[in-house]
Amino acid sequence: MASLQDIATAASINLLSAFGFLMAFAILRLQPFNDRVYFPKWYKKGIRSSPTRSGASASKFVNLDCRTYFTFLNWMPAALRMPEPELIDHAGLDSVAYIRIYLLGLRIFVPLAVMSFAVLVPVNWTGDTLERSKDVNFSDIDKLSVSNVADGSHRLWAHIIMSYVFSFWTFYVLYKEYGLLATMRLDYLASEHRRPDQFTVLVRNIPPDPDESVSEHVQHFFRVNHPDHYLTHQIVYNANKLAALVAEKRNLQNWYTYYQNKYERSSKRPMTKTGFMGLWGNKVDAVDYYTSEIQKLSEEEAAERERVSNDPDSIVPAAFVSFKSRWGAAVCAQTQQNRNPTLWLTEWAPEPRDVYWDNFAIPYFELTIRRLIVAVALFFLTFFFMIPITFVQSLANLEGIQKVFPFLKPLIEVESVKSVLQGFLPGIALKIFLALLPRLLMTMSVLEGYPSLSALDRRSAAKYHMFILVNIFLGSIITGSALQQLKTFLEKPPTEIPETIGEYIPMKANFFITYIMVDGWAGVAAESLRLVPLVLFHLKNAFLVKTEQDRSEAMDPGCIDFPVNEPRIQLYMLLGLVYAPITPLLLPFIIIFLAFAYVVFRNQVREWSGILARRAQAYDYKSNNIPTSAAGVTEHKRDRQILFCYPSPPCSHPLVLRFLQGPLRVGFHQIPPAGTGFLIPLLLIHQNSSLFVPDFESKQQQTQEAMIKDTLERATEPNFNLKTYLKDAYMHPVFKSTDIEKPDPLVEEEDRPLVATTRIANKQSPSSSSASSTSSRSHT
Fold first, then answer.
1. For residues 422 and 139, what is the distance between their CA atoms, to the nearest angstrom?
2. Model pTM greater than 0.85?
3. On the chain, which terminus has fewer CB atoms closer than 10 Å, C or N?
4. Residue 79 pLDDT level (bands cut at 50, 70, 90)
5. Burial 219-235 (b: 16+ CB within 10 A, else e)
6. Per residue in 608-635, pLDDT tens?
7. Range from 108-117, 404-413, 463-472, 577-586 carrying the lowest mean pLDDT
């Protein structure tokens, strides 16, 4: 069991590691040859140029100005000085809302830590329960927790009262923060620019029609049902094979560029092998080989383009339908279009660069089956992943190491080595073991068939949050193999599950402290280094970059890894709220993480990153579907579920209440029945905590804001041609660089339609066609 000395040793190691990462980051960002790695956003916006100077050749790559090294940490105050409105203009509201999560955590946990150390720590420390207990192995950390308070002691009233104080303070801070974000969001909506997704809805599961093509059917349906608001539409093609050919061709062109550059530098014809990655096969001239391969692939690509554009089977039953106003799109996106609720399904269209085109080829009826299969797979992955985690955790303590590697026993018994292992090894072992999990969960989300990258990230984040909640929080609390834990939960009544968890909560404070230090302190510092983008940029710059455009394309602005960072902050918020009344020693470690992460991520947003900046997308607050844009690199985005990151007290404090509740014996404690009655109101408050959150996301407000924006634009830009603006917004990316002859969707209209559409008018007379065109222009 780790002692205060072991925790201090681990804290020293992790603080030194974090400081080392920050030192490396501060020095590397000063070097001229790394400038595009650490300031890509400024280059993309055209407000920063290369610092490479003439003169000594070394100065072109290494910063020889010694004065800059004395101020290498100036990025920290610079990140904090940038005003929030300027940061919104620079990186977007989504990024600002994300980094405010860490500020929110500080506002919650700093007062909680002060109150805990002022009230609860003296109450716990002056108890003598552990010292009087026989055959109980404990450390100084346990003496600071509620474990040192006797059963039925009146000292437990301090913990109960502080639970009320902690809850009301958390609700108050959340209420104020939600109100501030609501104001920021409404102000931002009022000032945002026009975007295609504001006027467009995604229509799925379009029913087949024997007399009309998909395009004609869509046009006819919306001209009939939305005659005053329908503007245009874009059908969706299954171009997955074509996209794969384009990507393969781009890869071959990169290799061709590499060998061409190599040939120009050495004047010697480069050679390569025709096998995989040039590792085996016949040895041939590299330039000629890749020239011929690109030519073959270009012919195959042209044939596939022709097939996709002319084959009706390449059209999927989905379309992006655009309207003349935001109000019309809002009404369509939020209403049922057909008496059959499974047909003509509408939702807000994602921003064009947020669309995940590969999943549109999945038949709609398969989506439910896929999501059910993924849910079952996630269940088994979550619970049976405890087996390897339990094995790794068994090696992360002294007893487990001595059992598996008995020859290390003399080394482990050395006091300094023992402190390092107990205070550092458990957290780093779990961190390494979970490294590949986010990629696996993202693959599972892709298989579910969601149509946008932002939806994939949200689903991946939800899966990761559930995973770490079960495996890291619950799995670390309830020791044993996965089957044993599953059996424990299945055999007990649901009402006793919190009691079972409550028995083990105080015992695992040591592990969570080490995990926070490894994952939170050193992990966040390592993210600032941008090691992977740094290596990739220099590899591209050395072998592929030939022009300034190539160098610009080699820059990766990167993004904050939302599917990983969002569940992590939720876990830390949960740990803080759970352990505040039980083991307050955990709170300072969470506070250090929050302060550290706030500075690091604020700097990332300012200099090179945004939340999902690379995908040009973001997240609406909770379930709100009004698209919101972000300025700078993150413009043309949608903000979704940022507030999902915020802590949910109803998920945490019931565990604490069950731990303190009587007259049942829970953990080490038993309080009088009066104490039980005193806890009931707090449970009710937690169950109704949503009352503290202002409702700023009603559908009425969405349509109202849309109408205001439409009215203002009609007054300020009466001649704006919206149809031209939206014409190619939702065309598949592989088609945008070519002029493809699309099938005319206006030639198969039935002779006697119920509603005279534009295509029938075109058939009837040239004059009516001209009049219709003039009318369309006047409406736009």
1. 13
2. no
3. N
4. confident
5. bbbbbeebeebbbbbbb
6. 665 544 444 333 333 333 333 333 333 3
7. 404-413
Task: Please give the structure tokens belonging to residue 526.
Answer: 């390592």
Amino acid at 256: Y
Amino acid symbol at 488: T
Q: Alpha carbon of 181 to those of 62, 207, 299, 348, 748: distances in Å? A: 43, 41, 53, 22, 51
Task: Specify the length of the chain in residues.
Answer: 780
Above 80 in pLDDT, residue 573? Answer: yes
Q: Letter for the amino acid at 247?
A: A
Could you tell me if 16 and 431 are in contact, meaning their C-beta atoms sit under 8 angstroms apart?
A: no
Q: Residue 454: helix, strand or coil by DSSP? A: helix
The answer to whether the beta carbons of residues 381 and 472 sit under 8 Å apart is no
Rounded Cα distance between 283 and 275, Å, is 9
Q: Is 312 exposed, middle or buried (0-12, 13-18, 19+ CB in 10 A)?
A: exposed
Residue among 499, 485, 611 at smallest CA distance from 557: 611
Does 652 or 175 have the greater pLDDT score? Answer: 175
d(C-alpha 649, C-alpha 663), whole Å: 24
Judge whether 607 and 35 are in contact, CB under 8 Å: no
**Beta-strand pair 345-348/200-204:** antiparallel
Q: How much is the average pLDDT of 230-254?
A: 90
| CA dist list (Å): 678 to 169, 279, 520, 672 | 18, 73, 36, 10
Query: Residue 302 corresponds to which tokens in the numbers above?
Result: 């042209």
Separation between Cα atoms, residue 164 and residue 171, nearest integer Å: 11
* Bridge partners of residue 318, in order along the sequence: 204
- Cα–Cα distance, 199 to 189 (Å, whole number): 14
On whether the CB atoms of residues 396 and 431 are closer than 8 A, the answer is no
Rounded to an integer, what distance in angstroms lies between the CA atom of residue 749 and that of residue 212? 7
Which amino acid would we find at residue 202? L
Residue-by-residue DSSP string for 142-210? HHTSGGGSPTT-TTHHHHHHHHHHHHHHHHHHHHHHHHHHHHHHHHHHHHPPP-GGGSEEEEE-PPPBT
Tokens linked to 166: 């902690």
3-class DSSP state for residue 405? coil
Helix (H, G, I), strand (E, B) or coil at 666: strand
Give me 488's structure tokens: 């424990």
Helices (H), 479-547: 482-491, 497-504, 509-515, 523-529, 531-543
Distance of CA 562 to the CA centre of its chain: 2
